[in-house]
């Protein structure tokens, strides 16, 4: 059967030592209900990859002959697999050529984000997933599910707790003065993609900062600059910097096409000002020049974008499926399982140009016989 052939092909994409890692991470102590470590991982990937509930997964695994466990036992296995799946994700990222090592010595770097999750079916529940990952280990230190409607469900920094000395990376959805003020009050710093419409900027005298005028000086691809700015939260002034880099011509064209599509769908008003902002990557940070150069700030934001790309693949390819709502541990394990699937897809895409026409890679140690 094709599905029996597919698993060995998929295994070739896994990081080396993944079976041994299952035991050293504590995911596997004994294999009750499973014939092998392979069968355990296949069952877990059925759950997170197909979007099946735990009960449906246990039934399908039994029919496939790879497991004989109840949904309760499978939930326990999912919880125990949290560190195993996370470490596999970390190893796959390195294998895919992505380095999430921050350039800030001695700083704890956290990536916070949120995304909308729709479960399978026409009437599937819709959730907003809020999470925080530590870099470079991808350790999830915050996982929360809320409705997409009602007060307190939007993406905001206020739902997270922060420690002194941390550096928080976030996208433009978190570009609000109140959230930034909470981070600063905790003694932490931020690098946030600027939304100039939700985060007004001021100069030292309290006047609106002429951002577009300053940006006009960046005319060539790769030109970068930074300027001191202030933001206002309540009656508290917070000093920061805007770090900017001009995009490539292709990236500018792509960004402006997205604005055009949104306008055509009635989702936004993309006037000349918005189209001008689309020519740059703009990051607001509270890091001083002494703490980080302009290029270091932009590089830090690039780390956040690497993980964002993975989540884009999750939503478009892997699908989120049934979200565990039992406890934080099972939810984190489910999240790492999804990340693992997206990274496997990424790795498969990278080798896609060299894959053989007969559907699998030829083993390196195979003994080929010359033809007479």
Tell me the layout of helices and strands.
Blueprint: H1 2-11, H2 18-24, H3 37-50, H4 54-64, H5 71-80, H6 82-95, E1 109-118, E2 126-135, E3 139-147, E4 167-170, H7 177-185, E5 189-193, H8 211-215, E6 224-233, E7 236-246, H9 249-264, H10 272-277, E8 280-285, H11 294-318, H12 328-351
Parallel strand pairs: 1-4, 4-5
Antiparallel strand pairs: 1-2, 2-3, 5-8, 6-7, 7-8
Commentary on this structure:
It is built from twelve helices and eight strands. With 372 residues, the chain is α+β, with helices and mostly antiparallel strands. Among the domains are: 2-95 and 320-353, no CATH class; 162-291, no CATH class.
Discrete helix count: 12
Question: Major beta sheet, specifics?
Answer: 8 strands, mixed
Q: On the 0-100 scale, what is the average pLDDT? A: 83
Structural class: alpha+beta
Radius of gyration, whole Å: 23 Å
Q: What is the count of β-strands?
A: 8
Main sheet strand line-up: 3-2-1-4-5-8-7-6
Secondary-structure element pattern, one letter each = HHHHHHEEEEHEHEEHHEHH
Proportion in β-strands: 15-25%
Q: Which residues form runs of ≥5 with pLDDT under 50? A: 364-372
Residues in helix, % = 40-55%
Shape: elongated
Please give the alpha-carbon distance between the first and last residues.
Answer: 32 Å
């Amino acid at each position: 059967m094709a599905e029996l052939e597919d698993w060995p092909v998929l295994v070739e994409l896994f990081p080396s030592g993944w079976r041994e890692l299952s035991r050293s991470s504590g995911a596997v102590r004994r294999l009750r209900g499973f014939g092998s470590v392979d069968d355990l991982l296949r069952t877990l990937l059925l759950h997170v990859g197909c979007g099946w509930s735990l009960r449906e997964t246990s039934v399908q695994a039994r029919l496939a002959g790879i497991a004989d466990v109840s949904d309760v036992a499978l939930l326990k296995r999912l919880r125990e697999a949290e560190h195993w799946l996370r470490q596999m994700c970390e190893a796959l990222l390195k294998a895919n050529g992505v380095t999430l090592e921050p350039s800030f010595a001695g700083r704890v770097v956290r990536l916070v984000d949120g995304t909308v999750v729709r479960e399978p079916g026409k009437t599937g529940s819709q959730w907003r997933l809020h999470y925080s990952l530590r870099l470079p280990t991808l350790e999830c230190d915050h996982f929360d599910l809320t409705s997409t409607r009602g007060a307190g469900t939007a993406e905001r920094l206020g739902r997270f707790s922060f420690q002194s000395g941390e550096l928080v990376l976030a996208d433009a959805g978190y570009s609000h003065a109140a959230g930034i003020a909470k981070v600063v009050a905790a003694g932490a710093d931020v690098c946030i993609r600027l939304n100039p419409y939700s985060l007004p900027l001021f100069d030292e005298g309290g006047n609106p900062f002429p951002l577009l005028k300053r940006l006009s000086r960046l005319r060539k691809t790769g030109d970068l600059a930074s300027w001191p700015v202030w933001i206002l939260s309540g009656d508290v002034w917070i000093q920061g910097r805007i770090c900017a880099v001009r995009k490539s011509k292709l990236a500018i064209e792509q960004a402006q096409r997205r604005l055009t599509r949104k306008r055509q769908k009635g989702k936004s008003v993309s006037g000349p000002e918005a189209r001008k902002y689309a020519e740059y990557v703009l990051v607001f940070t509270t890091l001083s020049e002494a703490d980080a150069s302009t290029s270091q700030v932009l590089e830090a934001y690039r780390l956040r974008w690497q993980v964002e790309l993975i989540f884009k693949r999750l939503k478009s390819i892997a699908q989120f499926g049934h979200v565990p709502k039992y406890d934080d541990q099972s939810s984190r394990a489910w999240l790492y399982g999804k990340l693992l699937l997206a990274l496997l897809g990424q790795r498969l895409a990278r080798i896609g140009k060299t894959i053989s026409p007969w559907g699998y890679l030829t083993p390196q140690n195979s003994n080929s016989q010359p033809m007479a």
